[in-house]
TrEMBL record:
Xref: NCBIfam families: GGDEF
Keywords: Membrane, Transmembrane, Transmembrane helix
Name this polypeptide is given: Bifunctional diguanylate cyclase/phosphodiesterase
Stretches assigned to the EAL domain: 537-791
Amino acid sequence: MSTLVQGVGPTPTLLPTPIQPTTSLPALARRISLTWVSLTLASAALIVIWAATWQRTASEQRLIESNALAQQRSVAIILSENLTQVVDRGRLLALSADDWFEGRRSTTVARVNLQLATDQVFLRAALYNPALALQFQSAPAPVDARLEAAVREAALRLKAAAEPSLEIVAAPPGATESWSLPLLYAVMDRHAQVRGYLLLHMDLGYLLQLYRDVELGHTGSIKLLAPDHTLLAEVRAEGLSLPVQPQRIQGLDGTLATEGHRTIDIDGRGDVQLLAFRRAERTPFWVAVGRSADEILAGHERFNLRVWATLGLLSAVLLAAASLLLRSLRRQQALIDALRRSDQEKQSLILQLEDEKSRALALASLDHLTGLNNRRMFNQLAGSHLAAARRSPKHYALLYLDLDRFKLINDSLGHHVGDLLLQAVGQRLRTHVRSGDILGRMGGDEFALLVTGVDQAADVGQIAAKLVTELSQPYVDLAGHDLHVTPSVGIAFFPRDGHDITVLCRSADTAMYQSKRAGRGRYTFYDAALNPAGPKRYALERQLPRAIQDGELVLHFQPKVQLSDMRIVGMEALVRWQHPEFGLVFPGDFIPIAEQASLIGALGDWVMQACCAQQAAWRAAGLAPVPLAFNVSPQQLRDPSLPSRLGKLLRQHGLSATDIEIEITESCLVEPVEVAVKALSELERMGVHIALDDFGSGFSSLGQIRQLPIHKLKIDRSFVNDLRSNSDVGVIVTSIITLAHNLSMRVVAEGVELMDQLVYLKTAACDEVQGYFLSRPVAAEDAAKLMQHTHLRPP
């Protein structure tokens, strides 16, 4: 806490005053005889020498073992990552093998042969149907009954598995090529049902040959193990070897973490080895790298013998001298012991008193969650600094920070995850502020920083930009979640924007809300012109319920164009507010108000009813309407009556389920998702198509949504915007499109504003696009004219 107030302003009265210990024992010790001093110093020197020597030898031994383990762990990590990549490449082949059972056999053969030609780790491949009848093999090979029996056993284990993926085929020696390890993959359909099996022969010799030259001494070895710790292959100094008979590493029995180390006797003959092990992620393989403990510590043991011999001789001399003085010290020892006990009791009482005082200070001045100054302490410290700033020529500024969409994280993932996020934000702030600045948590997800004594006002902007960048970095593994949040920052200068801390906080808070309105994840300097926005927001918040009831809301429509023939294949409904005083108000100005005022459900119901009515009106006018899409909020999905209400509207307007389309955002899929998934599944059974909007901007991934009833992915406009400036974004977009197609989903790209973007997306096999380049959102009558032309050509 002292680092936050160092060198600036008066010291706050809440800081503790240290309590001085008693000095009775040193005063009495000075009065003892020279004999006592000599014996004490000799004994202390002997103890220090022995303790230091023992500590040094022990630390050296730990260091040697730690260095050896670090080397072994590095090799294990590299090999396990290599194995993971190899197995994942096999999984990719298994995923593409589903095309065989969909009738696209030539595609499967081409992909398998191409992978085998470019990937030397796989020797050959064979594809079986669920009855284990051979469908295809990459190269002719004689049928071996022993191998076929082992394949059947592996298939049975895959069928019994809760999530079938991969099994090692325990083929007997001679059943396969030398150094070949058969791997059996389950070929799954989109409903997680086994459609067949892909057998890949992995070349262990090629894989392990890469690690033959790793320096592990004469006794070191690299072992590749099966899930039951049976040795599959081994690399030693002499070369590569395969076990003649099944050999199980007994010392690894029992429950293991995914990585670690043990000291075990592998062969039972007293050859103790220091073994580092690691399980390759998403594979059944274990990697163990070992080396003899005797070899590792051999040089250290010889050195220790010389050190202890020398120390023993020195100790004998000192003990002989001490024994001559022991008789004269006996009477004085009792007195010294009594004084020491008394002094220890006093020290204990003093420490207890200081602890109690520190705890009381912390409760009064620190935030219990983040350890930062609380609001009261921040105001006191900032007030004292601002009082001194009146006489300083330098600049002082208050930064008010608020985390964007923090309420969504709290509501979706729970308050315990929100608390962990606040602690992580507090730690980053503590790391990236100067020692002379004042930092505090003002409550909720709001933080304040008083920047003191900067030479130029522009430096404050640089500090704010740095904080926005640092706080926007991902927060990894918070109770198993990886989160990405951004801060909105408001800046107010002293004394220009406020002569005391209260007014300064109000000005900075106003600027912070302007940052949120401007798009979040940025900083804004306070300007008196910011205040007029307050009455408008208040008026919108007060009038929104009436606007929903009185029909002041209108729909605009933006077409979706199929890239193969530029035909209009859908429309997206976008809500607007035709305000009598402010004119046309866009969603960014009133949707946040609806969320905060718990009106998002009523607003969503209005949009749903208005879309059904508009689709029915187009049909009555003789048009052949395309599916009309509208957004459904997470709050609506949590309502179990949503499917029945939508079905009633469809029947009321004479529509079918294919006439409309539901769009949800990734926030709907954040845990817990049971109610949302139930509602989506019921909508799918009705025949309603479901699209995932803004994919890539939230928490979900293709792996998480593959089991959900999602028919279409909409790539977030941020990826489309970066296609021209960042080649990595293009690779990501292409990968999303390819994987989505493999999962039988259509892909829509949002925010297309340039011809270059349109050309790239068509080349990448994107299905549909929408954006200003083709058409802005238009009113209902203009949308009807677009549908009459059926096709929409680029300008």
